[in-house]
Amino acid sequence: MEKREQLYSGKAKSVYGTDDADLYIMEFRDDTTAFDGLKVESLARKGMVNNKFNAFIMQKLEAAGVPTHFVRMHSDNEAVVKRLEMIPLECVVRNIAAGSLVKRLGVTEGMDLTPPTFELFLKNDALHDPMVNEYHARSFGWATEAEIARMKELTFKVNDVLKKLFRDAGMLLVDYKLEFGRFHGDIVLGDEFSPDGCRLWDADTRKKLDKDRFRQGLGSVVEAYEEVAHRLGVPL
Ligand code: TMP
Ligand code: ASP
Fold first, then answer.
1. pLDDT per residue over 55-112, tens digit each?
2. 33 CA distance to ligand 2 centroid (A)?
3. Are both 215 and 98 inside the same structural domain?
4. pLDDT digits (tens, 9 = 90+) for 115-170
5. Nearest Cα to 196, choosing from 33, 25, 14?
6. How far, in Å, CA of 149 to CA of 127, rounded?
7. Is residue 66 in a domain?
8. Is the CB of 100 under 6 A from ligand 1?
9. Which residue of 12, 56, 97, 225 is most buried, as measured by CB atoms within 10 A?
10. Is 73 in the same domain as 104?
11. CB 199 less than 6 A from any atom of ligand 1
């Protein structure tokens, strides 16, 4: 596979064209950002850890019947992915209250959420990723009613698969964010699943093992990601 020109560079990943019109190469960089890009640092090994972690999770999801854009790893910090037409929405499921939910509703961090919540956010750093609802998504043409229903169905399916996967490895999946796109008429999971876009706590001590370590300046960020990978048996 021939890697061609860079098409897009986001806060933590870059996308390159290839000689196949249906495929991209997605590079996981060491760059780490928080607060919509306000806090930026380069953390050694993070790109490699997230690429390998994402490959492991995407393959588990695909095996469970969630269509994903992941095709194969290309190098330590790159993956071959399907070329999706991205939908500019972030689908967030929460099993336990944390992060923006705690601030918005004044609830206690760590509260169990039964049933888990589903929220949509508009992917727009300049507007600080505002929360939107399904009517906004339809009225502004970001997604159709059927597409929203499918994204919600797949996002909850991911919860079933990953809650158990992490629980069996001694961790709680607190919340996570997914992004979807269109591929030849189907809704397909894109972007990544890594500790950059979810919250994971140790099941016994509730120690944070995700990007909150970076957001809150707790230190040992990549070390925590490596511990999560190690517990799941992801080869690094
Ligand atoms: P929040 O508590 O900040 O709303 O985030 C909920 C989850 O979604 C958390 O695991 C982080 C993830 N997330 C991102 O990775 N990027 C984003 O832009 C947003 C809004 C959330
Ligand atoms: N990923 C977003 C950012 O870089 C939001 C966050 O994770 O805090 O700013």
1. 999 999 999 999 999 999 999 999 999 999 999 999 999 999 999 999 999 999 999 9
2. 6
3. yes
4. 999 999 999 999 999 999 999 999 999 999 999 999 999 999 999 999 999 999 99
5. 33
6. 25
7. yes
8. yes
9. 225
10. no
11. yes
52 contacts 234 by C-beta, under 8 angstroms: yes
Phi, psi of 232, deg, nearest 5: -85, -10
For residue 176, report the distance from its CA to the centre of ligand 1, in Å. Answer: 7
Mutate to test the pocket of ligand 2, among 13, 29, 33, 100 (most ligand atoms within 8 A of CB): 33
Here the tokens at position 149 are 């229903």
Pairing of strands 171-178, 198-202: antiparallel
- Distance, CA of 26 to CA of 15 (rounded, Å): 5
Residue type, 180: F
User: Which is the closest atom of ligand 1 to the Cα of 121?
Assistant: 20
CA distance 219 to 32: 13
Whether ligand 1 lies within 6 angstroms of the CB of 129 is answered as yes
Ligand 1 near 84 CB (within 6 A): no
Same-domain pairing of 19 and 90:
no
HSE, CB side, 13 Å, CA atoms: give it for residue 141: 0
**The whole model's pTM is what?**
0.98
In this structure, the answer to whether residues 112 and 33 fall within a common structural domain is no
36 found inside a domain: yes
CA of 33, nearest ligand number: 2
Interval between CA 178 and ligand 1 midpoint (Å):
9
Total domains in the chain come to: 2
Give the integer Cα–Cα distance in Å for 38 and 1.
36
